[in-house]
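Slide 14.
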Amino acid sequence: MKQTKAYLLPLFYLLFFFSTSNTFAQFSTQFTNGYYTLGLNGGWSYQSSDVRANLNGFGLGLTLGRSLYHQPGSPVSFDLRGRFLYARQYGLDPTRSYDIGSNTALNGTQTLDYTQYPSDLNEPQGFVFQNHRTDVGELSLEAVLTANRLREQTGILASIYGGVGLDWYRTRIDQSDNLGQAYYKGYSDLGPETSKGAALKSLRNEVLDGIYETNADDFENYGKLGIMPSLGIELGYYLTPTFALTAGHRLTFAGTDLLDGQQWADNQNDLYHYTSLGLQWNISTGKSHTKGTKPGITLMEPDRNPSYTSDPNAFLRARIQHVNSSADVTLRLNGQPVNFTFNDE
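Slide 15: predicted structure.
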């Protein structure tokens, strides 16, 4: 039966909030049209497929992006980025799989034949305990939509993205020992009455040797290529105006039921997941919305500069040009910061 339950790791993420206004004032001025992003990430990779996912998969990735749309104060920004990802996923099922009659890796077409067990084991029908190791290498292009105003005002990074990639993948299975002998006896000892927990423990520690020596059904040594779309979410926090810690989850639609090496249990295509932590740098191209233009301040009320008053509640209104947002403005009275109202219209 297709494994449809998503094993989503909670994305626990520690957000540091800085109280000084100078820290946040820089976010709105550092992000300019044409900036680049460079990201490094690593984490856990696994499948939603016919074979139960193991917890020991992993992934490593690199991203390089460029801003295509960004305006200070705008709700969102838009980037285009490329991704290289290498991932390895493992699977091991604790229940007997009898759907092997058409599986060329297990029905005798190659070397191993699990369709008939030795007569002394009294197994009327052939079966295996499905397992796999899948290696994936991907080059993809992604469109990234980021909550820009949130990032400018707080340093919190929140993005969603979608893309399409060219994926190389190869799946191998562990169905024989180091002498090339099938696991007939070890499998037969794990009867239908054996609990899943006990079966997994026995398979890992006693039966299987952990060497994935056999190409899975319909695979050769050189693997396969496929076009695979993906969707993802990314959260993070900028520790400096140009450096962020990130956490994310990415789902890739394989477009094949063979990613786990088993296609005969049902006709649903497999998915693979990548949950990661990462580092991201923003690299400026040197362009700036305010480069070469100093802020201009025109006193509107009172209309004289300098102006003197004995009123402790005097009202001051001014027009300031060439600033991006209120984060770029500081009002001080006798050297101390004073609250003010900013209208960007």
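Speaker note: Confidence is low (pLDDT under 50) at residues 1-26.
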